[in-house]
Write a structure and sequence with these properties.
By secondary structure, the protein is an all-beta fold. 0% of the residues lie in helices and 48% in strands. The chain has strands at residues 4-7, 10-13, 18-24, 32-39, 46-51, 58-60, 68-73, 78-83, 92-100, 115-116, 120-125. The strands form 2 sheets. Strands 2, 4, 5, 6, 9, 10 and 11 form a 7-stranded mixed β-sheet that branches. Strands 1-3-8-7 form a 4-stranded antiparallel β-sheet, with no helix packed on it. The mean pLDDT is 96.
Length: 126
């Protein structure tokens, strides 16, 4: 059973930074493509960022491009989302997702991921 656990959320002022972490249980983390999604109150879940199994391919939603960076440490079974220049509209519950695939093509649809974390709240005050 693969389990994902996010951490690092919190309250931050606009313009500030946060780093989210997602730790994945199991010994095959390096075989998983990872994604970050978010859901704001009253809105649909939306794609934020993708990283391929080896970290060589990344992709971002236009709304976060240039401000957010996704990375992974396969030795620590962890994927990160560094969020800089945060805006009030970044406020949401952030979820990490995983799927066992070696594709390098961006996976922007939530339905492509088999495993999800419980989410971590990010609140940006303006």
């Amino acid at each position: 059973q693969v389990q994902l656990a996010e951490s690092g959320g919190g309250l931050v002022q606009a313009g500030g930074s946060l780093r989210l972490s997602c730790t994945v249980s199991g010994r095959t983390f390096s075989s998983y493509a990872m994604g970050w999604f978010r859901q704001a109150p009253g809105k649909e879940r939306e794609f934020v960022a993708f990283i391929s199994w080896g970290g060589g391919s990344t992709y971002y939603a236009d709304s976060v491009k240039g401000r957010f960076t996704i990375s992974r440490d396969n030795a620590k079974n962890t994927v990160y989302l560094q969020m800089n220049s945060l805006k009030a509209e970044d406020t949401a519950v952030y979820y990490c997702a995983a799927d066992r695939t070696t594709t390098t093509r961006p996976m922007v649809l939530g339905g492509l991921y088999a495993y999800w974390g419980q989410g971590t709240q990010v609140t940006v005050s303006s």
